[in-house]
C-alpha cells in the first residue's frame, strides 16, 4: 500500500435496575432481540472512557475497610451481627474450632498433594501477602515499574508491577521458559501432581509461555487469539483454573488437619482457644473462578477440557468421564443453531465463529471433587462458574436473586472478548462492576478461616484476570487498565502490527482516511456527527454519487443517522442486526437496482449475517470498524463482479474512512502501527492509501 498526504489542515452495593425481570430463557435465535432490549433500556455506548477510574481519588471512599458505613466488616470480624442473620451456634467454642464443611468426596481429593508443603506454600504466598493502605494507593494511582521482554512464541510483552511499600514474595524471573514435554516439567511449575498425569504432552511453545504468565498470577491481556490457536489458549486457561481450584482445596484439607491436631492436643482451655492466622484459607463464598464466554458452544468445549484434565487417566471405556448430569449438559449445550448455506457460502471465519450452539444466555456451576465433577451445581456450592455476560446481568438485575457468589472471585477469565463487543459490551461492564461487592448476608464460613483481605474488603486486589481477544481495542484496554487491580501487576502482549488488514484489499481503488478534530473523547461522538452532516453528506447527495453504503459500527450512531436521514427526507434503505430477512432482501434489491442512493449498514448487522452487498460504488466508514477484517471484506464487495453494469457509474468509485485521534487502536489493526500513529498525530487531516502500483 502507498500512502501520501492529500491536503493539510491540522463499595457499597449499587441499586439494581428493573432491566430484565423475566426468568424464562429465550430461544437461541432471539439473542439479537434480547440484546436490543438491553440496549434500549440501559444504553451506554461502547466507549472505554466509561470504565476509567480517577487515579487521584485516593481517599477513604475508595477503601471500604476505612469507610464501613453499615458495620458489615466489623460484624464479619467479630462473627456477630444484630441485623444480619448468621448460622446459630450453641457453643462459642464450636464457632472457634469449626472446620470447613467438606463433603466425603472432597476429603480425599488429592491426598498426595495435600501434604506437599512446598507446592502449597508457593500458592499461598500470594494470598498471605497483606496490602497496606500505601500499597492500595499506589495500585489505584497506577504507580508502576515497567519491564519489557520477548519470548519466542508470544513475542513482545510489557509487564507493569505496582510500586508496593513491601515486596511480595513472587518470582520475578521472566526469562524464556523451557518447553513442557512431560509431567515432571509441570511439577516444577508447582502444578498439582494429580493434574500433571492427565495433561496432553507436549504442550506447544505458545501454551508453555502462556501458562508461565498465568501461573505467575499476573493479569494477562493477549490480543492475538485466532481460530487456529483458540483451543490451545482454552486448554491453558482450563489447566490454570483447575490447578488453582485443586490447590485451594488441598490447602483447606491441610489446614483442617492442623485444626484437628489443635483440638486433640490443646495448649489452652477450649473456651479461650482461637485459630492461628495461618489457617485463613477461604473467601466469603466457595466460588473462586469465573469464566465468561460468548456462546454455549464455548462452554461445552471448556467443560470437555476440564473433564479430561481431571479424569483422563480414569476414563471408563463404557461410561466415559465421571461427570454428573453430562447427558443433560450435552443436550442443552451442543447442536448447531445457525444455518450455513451451501450456495453463496459465508466466509470461513464466520462459520468457525458461529459453529455449534450460539445461545448467549447461559450459566452453569461446576463443582470439583476427587471422584467426580458435578454440573448444574448451586452457585453457592460451586468452584467454577461458566456464564455469558447477559445471563449474569439478568441475575444482577433480578431482585429475587442474590449475587453474593461474585464477591470472592480469585480468577476471572474473559475469552473471545471481541464477540462480547458484538453482543453488548455494557453487559460485561455491568458484571465487572458487581464483583467483590459487600455481601447481602454474612457467610456461613467460619470467620476465623476467612482470608484477611475478605475482612478488609480488598478482595479485588487479589483477583487475577486473563483476557483473550482476536485484536486490540480501547474497550479491552479499558477493562485491563481500569477494572483490574491485581497487586502483582499485569502483562500485555505488544507485538507490532506491520501492515494490517488493508493488505487484503483486492479492489484497485483509492482509500481516503479523513481525520476529524475533537477536543476530548466525550465530544467525539458529537464532533463526528456534525462533521459528517456538514461536510461529508452534502458531497454524496449530489447527482452522480449513487450506490453509497454508509457503514456504522455503533448502533447508537446508526439510530441517530437514520433519524437524520428521515428528517432530511433522504432516500435510503437500511440493514441492521434487527432487520428481518425479508426486509434485508428487499433493501439489497432496491440498492442494487438504483432504487435508493444510500444504504445505512450497521456493523453488528454485518457481524451476525455477513450479507454480501452488491452494487456498492461509494463506501463510507463512519468510524473504523471494530472488526478489522471487515474493512477489506467490504471494499472487496466493490469488485466488478458485484456491480450492476446498467447503473452507468463504472468509472465513479470511492472509499472514505472518518476517524479521530482516539481511533488509534482501530486504525492500527487496519493500516499498521506506524501508519496509524502518523494519521493521528500528523499535520495533515487527510491521507490517501492506494493499492495501485
From TrEMBL:
MF-aspect GO terms: rRNA binding; U3 snoRNA binding
One Gene Ontology cellular component: small-subunit processome
Location of the region described as Disordered in the Swiss-Prot/TrEMBL record: 1-28
Chief location of this protein within or outside the cell: nucleus
Top-level taxonomic group: Eukaryota
Claim: Nucleus is one of the keywords in the record: yes
Lineage of origin: Eukaryota, Metazoa, Ecdysozoa, Arthropoda, Hexapoda
InterPro entries: P-loop_NTPase, UTP25, UTP25_C, UTP25_NTPase-like
Family of this protein: Belongs to the UTP25 family.
Protein name, UniProt field: U3 small nucleolar RNA-associated protein 25 homolog
Record localization: Nucleus, Nucleolus
Residues annotated as domain UTP25 C-terminal: 502-689
Organism this protein belongs to: Drosophila hydei
